[in-house]
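Reopening this one. Same input as before:
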Amino acid sequence: MARPGKSNQETGPEARLLRSRRLGRIFTLDSRRRLSHEYLVVCGYKGLSRVLGRIPPSCATIPAYVSGLAVFLLSPNKRQIVRDNLARPSGRRMGWWESNKLALRGYFSYSRYWVEALGLTQLSRRELSARMSFNGFENVFTALGQGKGVIFTTPHLGNWDFGAAWLASSGHPITAVMEELEPRELYDWFSSHRITFGVRVIPASASAFGELAKTLARNEVVALVADRDIVSSGVKVPFFGEAASVPQGVALLSLRTGAPIIPAAVYMLPGGGHYAIAMEPIRYTRTGLLRDDVAELTGLLVSRFESLIRAAPTQWHLFQPNWPSQMENGDSGSTI
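Same output, byte for byte:
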C-alpha cells in the first residue's frame, strides 16, 4: 500500500528502480573519483600542507632528512646525475665518497624545500619576517623607483617560495610563472596554494609573456626561476665550464620592457632560518640585433647564477641532465 501523500507513480516498482539506478551512478562516479590517481595525489598534497605547516621550524628537518634519505637510496640512476651536477660548481673532480656525500646533502636540501614550501600557508607575516634576514634589499627599492617593475630571477636554489612569500607579505605584489602540471587539479591546487601567501601564478604558455609585461608596466615584481630550459627554446651559454641551454625569457622580457633584472637567492639556514641576497641589477645597453643581445644578456645572468650557486652548491636543486655531455652519456631526464 502506498504511503499517504505519495502517488503510486512515485512509489511504484519503476520509480524505485529509477532511484536505485541514479544512486548507483552517483556512487560509481564518486568511487571512481575518490579512487582515481589524480584525486589521491591532490589530497596527499593538501594533507601534507596542513600537517607540515604545524611543525615547528626546529623540527622541520626531521621529515626532510627522512624523506631525502629514502629518495636518495631508492634512486641510484638519479644519484649519478645529482653527483655530477653538484660537483660542477667546485670545478674539480671528486671521489666516490665525497660526491655521494654532496649528493645526499642535496637530497636533504630539496626535501627541506618541499617541507617548508608546502607549509607556507600556515605562517603569519610575523613568522615569515622572524625567519628571514636579507642583504641588498636596497637594490629592490632603487629598481622600483624607475617605475618599470623588477624582474627577480633565481636558479633552483634554496627556497625561492619562502622568499616570495616574505616579499609579498611586505606589500610587494608578485607574479610568477609555473609550468603546467598533470593532473590539472594539481596545477590548480599549487596555484591557489601560492595565491594564499601572496603570489599570483600564471601558466607557462604563449600568453605568459604579455601577462608579465603588463605586470611590469604596473611597476610590480615578476619572479622567475630561470636556470633550466624546460621547453627547449633557450640559448646556449657557458654554464660551469660547458655550454648549456638556458631560458631566454628573462633577458627578452627585460629588453622589451626596460625592467631591471635582479639576480637573487634565498638560502636555507640551520634551525629554519633563511638568508636572502638581492644582487645589484644587471646593467645592459642594446647593441644591435635582438637575438644577439638576448644571448649576451643571458650569459651575464648565468655568470651571476654561478656565483650564487657556488655559495651553497648543495642547495642547488637540479635533478635532471642539463649539459650535452650528460645527454650523450645516456643519463635519464626523468624527474623525481
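So the earlier flakiness isn't reproducible anymore. For the record, Residues 13-35 form the longest helix (23 residues).
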